[in-house]
Amino acid sequence: MPAAAPNSLPLIDVIIPAHNEAPSIARVLAEIPPGWVRETLVVANACTDDTAAVARAAGATVLREDRPGYGWACLRGMDHCFARPAAEQPALIVFLDGDYSDYPEELPAVVQPILDGRAELVIGSRALGQRERGSMMPQQIFGNWLATGLLRRFYGVRFTDLGPFRAIDARALRALGMEDKTYGWTVEMQLKAARQGLRCVEVPVRYRRRIGVSKVSGTVKGTLGAGYKILWTLFRYR
Q1: I need a labelling partner for 151 at 20 to 30 A (CA). Which of 61, 134, 157, 227 fits?
Q2: How far apart are CA 62 and CA 115, in angstroms?
């Protein structure tokens, strides 16, 4: 059971980039702990299925982003959050995948270091947590190992994962000046956080086989594209 929400919480918004996740998105939304989140945004990213309709029926705010790319979807969600009046700006933003590979009920553990004042960025680490067999392909595991090793070498910050389940102080996120539109989004956030001296913490999270086929690791084109973009991003900002 997820932890009960404290009586007083800062405003927390969740952004879920979703490309053709109609079979899984309702299950993801149903497992976000009640009372912890002000608004859940599902960004229907170049969808050709019923992701938007299913998410809307499940109670999410649905945004449309027709330009394909994980980063485009995240930026669209951020634009929505930061367009609010000053008094309604979120204090924290959580990013979560829409394929049901993450465990949304672990959101309290992911945001807790920020609530405690110990961090501005929290990465849910699949490497430190429990992974269902087959939930990560060998190329994903190797890619994470290589990318986190380069982050340590180039930027002096220790991570074990580029996991999609993460929380960040909203003002810190805005100050990062995120730019990547596709596969380099997660590593860009982590290296910019290191460069700006943000306090970064990892917490173990569980990970399971996604519903459906991965758009990245499930294809040769996606795997090569993601690998190239992550490495390019690491070297670009160095």
Answers
A1: 134
A2: 27
